[in-house]
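Dear support,

We are seeing what looks like truncated structure output for some complexes. This example has three components. We would appreciate it if you could run it in full and send us the complete token output so we can diff it against ours.
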Amino acid sequence: MSDPVLSTLNLNKSFGALKATDDVSIDLKSGEIHAIIGPNGAGKSTLIQQICGGLQPDSGRVLLNGQDVSGQSTQARARAGMGRTFQISQLCMEDTVLENAVLGVMGAEHLAWRFWRPALKRPSLRDRAEAALERVGLSDDRDTRCANLSHGQRRQLEVAVALTLSPKAFVMDEPMAGLGAEGSKRLTGFLDGLRQEAPILLVEHDMDAVFALADRISVLVYGKVIATGTADEIRTNREVRDAYLGDEA
Amino acid sequence: MSSILIIEQILNGLQFGVMLFLMAAGLTLIFGVMGLINLAHGSLYMVGAFAAAAVAGVTGSFLLALVAALAAAALAGAIVEMVVIRRLYNAPHLDQVLATFALILIFSEGTRWVFGSFPLFLDIPDALSGPVTLPGGIEYPLYRLTLIGIGLAVAVGLWALIERTRLGIQIRAGENDREMIAALGVDISKLYTLVFALGAALAGLAGALVGAIQSVQVGMGEPVLILAFVVIVIGGIGSVRGAFIGALLVGLTDTLGGVFLPELFKLFMDNGAAQKSGSALASMGIYVLMGLVLIWRPTGLFGARA
Amino acid sequence: MRLNEKYFNALMIAGLLALPLWAVVADQPFTITLVTRAVILALAAVGLNIILGIGGMVSFGHAVFFGIGGYAMGILAYHAQTYTALDLGPFSTDGTKSMPVIWLVAMILSGLVAFFIGLLSLRTSGVYFIMITLAFGQMFFYFAISWAQYGGEDGLSIYVRNDFPGLNTLAPIQFYGICFTLLCVVLFLFARLQASPFGLALNAARQTPTRVETVGLNPMRLKLLAFVLSGAITGLAGALFADLNRFVSPTMFSWQLSGELIVLIIIGGVGRLMGPVIGACVFVALEHFLGELTDFWHVYLGVVLLCIVLFGRGGLIGLLTGKEGVHV
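Here is the complete output from our reference environment:
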């Protein structure tokens, strides 16, 4: 069995009396999509934050590619190969689509400390950025200011910026949020092919997408993982039905 | 160095500190409730001082002068809030800074226009002039002692207002959750005007009280304003308790540093050089204090953790 | 009417060349001095524009660097004109009257101070940052006042303007030429910096620091370097300003000056290449013409400023070119 690319070991996080993350150990293996689902308030965002470095856990560790990244900053984790997308787009709204993608390449290539030649006139930055935009289908909008993009296009750009990082693992926080049926379907198809490049830890509310994509699914309830397994196993799991699917059906 | 001198200087520091508190309390309340940085707070201090000096000049009554200072500053605050500040609550900090900077220009030059460039004088009332003898045989000016008393009384009053009254509940709610107070049926714009006027009145009171020991002139407010900023950065922006502790720290540091640093330097320098370097360093003392607090706690002693 | 920003910029530069040349022909030395003043203030504000316009940091203490530049000039020239040695611990110097040396010292010193102030104040953001930079400005102001060796509150007078190899700096137009050239050089550097990878990253750090971290960059370091560069340029402007007046005093450190530098940028347009330049020209013109009409011209400046903040984003360049300003 190959070592997991990304894993958490016994993560714990409390806010006062509320246990937001309760002894969570999950892993992400090469080539897979591992979805994390759970009702609102189950602690998914808190978990993602701890994995990406926005929040420090009270105890437990995060491993990326065999390297302990617990305690490291967000930027150090990004450099170690974590490619994150946000539930609420974190894009430079005043900049163009291309500039946003170029920023990603600059991070990946350690090229931010250059002061002379314009960023957009550097083939080393521009080519990779354009390739990423091409893949998500934003090439025609490369000179559009981000503020003028539709919601769906911003979601695509989020993914494109993560692509420019050529990460070892993707961590995607609700990439389908706010997409219409059509957009969801297209992105589902895209992510389906992406897992070969790097595995994806996927937090998602869109159950159609989750069951279509995920190799494994973990169910988070009150900060605790109550089940992990394939789509079929989760579908038939009694505890999950009670705790989660039960109140939706 | 005698213990009498030390106690005198500590009292001076306290007096300076409580006056800074009157300024800082308003600033920090306004920031805590409305999220606004108000550079023109120093102008309200000046308005209070000028109103007091003008009224004292006509009536000869110090008490009436204080009432005038409170009323004029509160009124100026309320008008400014309704005409300008209200449009800035959701604006970026840069806009707030610029607009209130513009207000300083208008207030300062407007006051110069009306009253001229020469300083006015506000006399200490006869009843409060002269020294009193404290236990231990220390002679201390009664007026300054009164200032300490007034400052402490205001601090207690503010505490009671915030902890014990309906208005206080609304203020605390406003600091935590703006939508909440709207949901409670509180008229937010009235609350904001009220809080702003309250902060302005405190600044005006400070201006009038300090105006009697210094001269009343255009531009008197801004140095105090910047010190009040240092106070609330140290105390934590939005915290009235932090403003109180910060104000006393700054008042004591500034006063004691100015007296004792040159003395300290005299131990290993000749007198002239010690006086020079000591007072140069003392002028930086409170900023060093601020720097140290920031290294230790970037959001101040009582500020919300980021 | 909508102007293309490029033409507008070229027009500004042409105007800054033509006006002083006309003043020479018409024998109006005071006009040259006024324009020189505008150009130097513009230079200081271009420095501030790096952190304000690109990096989004509202520094209300930039007079610190202006003052340090001024005092660097004042102290070096004072020792040179009094033939006294300036002791700096291990080594000692006789001061200098050479502009290039003074500029270098001014820039290095202000950059160094900017590094330490930046290190402390960038631990915070928002309102804290504004208040802390303001407080540091005040600290230097009071320090200068109590620095009796160099004139304390009264400041220092330098009797003869400093030298520049091959030029007669006492001729107003030649000194103007120096200042104008430096402004052009710095504007060119600003334009390069803004478009460079560093500029792009700094610009992103203003809009969304989270994004910058997520691609593996450290927004704090980007901002700190920008702060240092910004301080050094404003320091250079301070040295020139001191040379223009042949006088330095603690007012170069005053908070009003810090405020005015921000105001210059706002009048012209935040984050715009020529924003500080047009802002400085308008400011100096207002100061001069309104100042002749009334002693209380600051009231009008206040009203104008209030209107810009409340009703007109993007400054004059925004107004003329129809582009919105950046958001800080």
